[in-house]
Amino acid sequence: QVQLVESGGGLVQAGDSLRLSCLVSGRTITSPTMGWFRQAPGKEREFVATITWTGGSARYTDSVRGRFTISRDNAKNTVYLQMNSLKPEDTAVYYCAAGLIYPSTSAAEYLYWGQGTQVTVSS
Question: Quick one: which of 76, 105, 109, 120 has the fewest CB in 10 Å?
Answer without folding.
Answer: 76
